[in-house]
Write a structure and sequence with these properties.
Elements: E1 4-7, H1 11-24, E2 27-32, H2 40-44, E3 47-50, H3 63-73, E4 77-79, H4 89-97, E5 101-102, H5 107-114, H6 116-125, E6 133-134, H7 141-151, E7 155-159, E8 168-171, H8 177-192, E9 197-201, E10 206-216, E11 220-232, E12 235-241, H9 248-264, E13 268-278, E14 288-294, H10 301-308, H11 312-320, E15 337-344, E16 346-347, E17 353-354, E18 357-358, E19 361-363, E20 368-371, E21 378-379, E22 386-394, H12 397-410, E23 412-414, H13 420-428, H14 430-433, H15 441-444, H16 446-450, H17 456-466, E24 485-492, E25 495-505, E26 508-513, E27 516-523, E28 526-529, E29 532-533, E30 537-541, E31 544-548, E32 553-556, H18 560-567, E33 572-574, E34 579-584, E35 591-592, E36 597-603, E37 606-611, E38 616-621, E39 628-629, E40 634-639
Helix pairs in contact: 4-5, 12-13
The structure holds adenosine-5'-diphosphate (2 copies) and magnesium ion.
One adenosine-5'-diphosphate binds near residues 163, 294 and 299.
Length: about 650
């Protein structure tokens, strides 16, 4: 085994590799860009080398700098993680030239699988079923269109150098072929510097089922399949193992084909053979076709680890260090079921746009968490916006699913928008629950999966938190006269959700919001709404109202000045939130004009200036400088002059 290795990656995968190294007593060198100086993977490593500025091309993708860092620190081997240089044969060759071991397959195996067309030809020769189609060298648009007609529509145009779903176009009819080809080419050229494409039969009701393989150069085994059919725009969202509906017969056929694929290229290390599967009807031994092989550890490898008990990174290190495969095919068995969800910083309503920001809150529920960030860290625009992978195991698929649903509901992220709510809906989708998975599921039900939550109870929790009532508030004392009530506005994006809360005394409140009227009572375990305890909880974090639970939501609060102005409709200026009166700028009886400064409050570490909503006279001054106020407390009342 190695004494010291370098990890040529960042984020969760770098941290995950470090975990195994720690356990095996292997020292770790991290590399990092200037943007990552304080990153979790750097803090976890034994040594760290800065390899350049934030842009990956000048740091994580710079072969010369990574090799130099390995030489300078005396690392014997380099783990590439996934992405970045993990499938770059030139990187492998450069390391070999420097006498450093690449933890992964040889440059030849990577080259053999690097381009989809060459890989398909090779697999066909090895007796692996490939998707029917054209993967020849001729790239003339006329020829490609003729091939598409022969294959029969719908067809898929794929960039031969593609990855991450880019350079791919579904073409339903011959008339649309030319334009689709042009746009696939342009995208592929931009992303991969190679505009060549292949044409494939589009498999209808497609399922993505891939097989984890492992080789030592001589022998190869498979660690069963993963179902990655839940995809958005050809990108995986939720993965699981084993595949729903898998039979022993089909598993043997797919596993066998995957092992043949690995052996055909003398594969060494961890790899994944991806198949497209005809999901209409049950799985069949003749209903799957090779799509591509990823010659690296895959993002979703944890689900395979969870069902086999194998640490794939340990195997990678052992095999790279010259040890034989740790076990034979017969020694591998499946235990239970595992499911993984990819938590991303992304704005789902805005069309899944990558998001950035500081993680003001980051807490996870039970289950396996693979993450490269900690609370307080920043999701920067420079890299993949993945926050974490949550993986849960159960004796059955239903148990794994329930565990993941619970894990997601217990996860709290604030400061950065995420796809957490979308993941929760997906996990709860009736078709998914039934194991009725297909790559088109998300697109088909996108609206329901992304519609804003309108459950009044959850809006009530948010409104109570927004008024600072979680920590106790006004009400009890005031209730003697009349129910005090406060308007509350929650902003979902720019969309206001209006409500009103009234103190009923005795720690109870009436809440009107989302078209419902509810009674809220604060108990030791949180709010009870209409007598029911909710699992969800709401908090104000960094000036935003966060609702955590199965339907996580975030609301901005309108400018407190506006809240004050609205509350002052009857002439009363109320404290928009709990805080201290910093200064008073008027006296009782004084005449004021609209916009005059009346008082300054400090709340949530910010100063809020209360201004006169209209011309008038100060009829009542209810506070003194230095007073601690509760949300909704009266500060001053302005009476319009007769
Ligand atoms: P997987 O099946 O493991 O998701 P992908 O091909 O989608 O495989 O990509 C795996 C990871 O590698 C993703 O996180 C993606 O962001 C990253 N990645 C893919 N292609 C590139 C690339 N060209 N440069 C940098 N990172 C990449
Ligand atoms: P990438 O290198 O971008 O990962 P893949 O060839 O692995 O490209 O395809 C990505 C996804 O596109 C698959 O997971 C699947 O959902 C879909 N796909 C690919 N080929 C086909 C096909 N022939 N028929 C239907 N869907 C396909
Ligand atoms: Mg793929």
């Amino acid at each position: 085994m190695f004494d010291k290795i370098l990890i040529a990656n960042r984020g969760e995968i770098a941290c995950r590799v470090i975990d195994t190294c720690r356990r095996l007593g292997v020292k770790v060198v991290a590399v990092y860009s200037e943007a990552d100086a304080d990153a979790r993977h750097v803090a976890m490593a034994d040594e760290a080398v800065c390899i350049g500025p934030a842009a990956s091309g000048l740091s994580y993708l710079d072969i010369g700098k990574v090799v130099a860092a390995a030489q300078q620190t005396g690392a014997q081997a380099v783990h590439p993680g996934y992405g970045f240089l993990s499938e770059n044969p030139d990187f492998v060759a450069a390391l070999e030239g420097a006498g450093i071991t690449f933890i992964g397959p040889g440059a030849e195996a990577i080259r053999a699988m690097g381009l989809k067309d060459a890989a398909k030809a090779r697999m066909e020769a090895a007796g692996v079923p490939v998707v029917p189609g054209y993967h020849g060298a001729e790239q003339d648009p006329g020829r490609l269109e003729a091939e598409a007609a022969l294959i029969g529509y719908p067809v898929l145009i794929k960039a031969v150098a593609g990855g991450g779903g880019r350079g791919m176009r579904l073409v339903e009819r011959a008339e649309a072929f030319e334009d689709a080809l042009e746009s696939a080419r342009v995208e592929a050229l931009g992303a991969f510097g190679n505009g060549d494409v292949l044409i494939e039969k589009f498999i209808e009701h497609p399922r993505h089922i891939e097989v984890q393989v492992f080789g030592d150069g001589q022998r190869a085994v498979h660690l069963f399949e993963r179902d990655c059919s839940l995809q958005r725009r050809h990108q995986k969202v939720i993965e699981e193992a084993p595949a729903p509906g898998m039979t022993q017969e089909v598993r043997a056929a797919m596993g066998g084909a995957a092992v043949r694929a690995a052996k055909a290229i003398g594969y060494k290390g961890a790899g994944t053979v991806e198949f497209i599967v005809d999901g209409s009807g049950g799985l069949r031994p003749d209903g799957f076709w090779f799509m591509e092989m990823n010659t690296r550890l895959q993002v979703e490898h944890p689900v395979s680890e969870e069902i086999t008990g194998v640490d794939l990174v340990e195997w990678q290190l052992r095999v790279a260090a010259g040890e034989p495969l740790p076990c034979a095919q017969e020694d591998l068995t499946i235990r239970g079921h595992a499911m993984e969800a990819r938590l991303y910083a992304e704005d789902v309503p805005a069309g899944f746009l990558p998001a950035t920001g500081r993680l003001e809150r980051l807490r996870f529920g039970p289950g396996r968490v693979d993450t490269g960030v900690r609370e307080g860290d920043v999701i920067s625009p420079h890299y993949d916006p993945m926050i974490a992978k949550l993986t849960c195991h159960g004796a059955t698929r239903a148990e794994a699913r329930a565990a993941l649903a619970e894990g997601l509901a217990a996860t709290e992220v604030a400061g950065v928008v995420t796809n957490l709510g979308f993941l929760g809906r997906l996990i709860d989708h009736a078709g998914f629950r039934a194991g009725d998975v297909e790559t088109g599921l998300i697109a088909r039900d996108l609206e329901a999966l992304t519609a804003p939550c309108t459950e009044p109870e959850l809006l009530a929790l948010a409104a109570l938190a927004a008024l600072g009532l979680n920590e106790g508030g006004p009400g009890e004392g005031f209730a003697l006269w009349a129910p005090l009530s406060w308007p509350v506005t929650l902003l979902r994006g720019a969309e206001p959700v209006e409500g009103r809360i009234s103190a009923l005394g005795g720690g109870a409140y009436g809440v009107e919001i989302g078209g419902a009227e509810m009674r809220a009572e604060r108990g030791p375990e949180g709010w009870r709404i209409d007598g029911r305890s909710l699992k969800a909880r709401a908090e104000v974090i960094g000036g935003e109202v966060q609702v955590f639970g199965a339907e996580p939501m975030v609301f901005a609060l309108p400018d407190p000045l506006e809240v004050g102005a609205e509350a002052a409709g009857e002439g009363a200026i109320l404290a928009p939130m709990p805080g201290v009166v910093r200064s008073l700028h008027v006296r009782a009886g004084e005449t004021v004009q609209a916009g005059d400064r009346l008082a300054v409050m400090e709340a949530m570490k910010m100063e809020h200036v209360m201004r006169a909503p209209h011309d008038g006279v100060v009829a009542e001054l209810a506070v003194a400088a230095g007073d601690q106020l509760e949300a909704g407390a009266l500060i001053v009342r302005i009476e319009a002059e007769a």
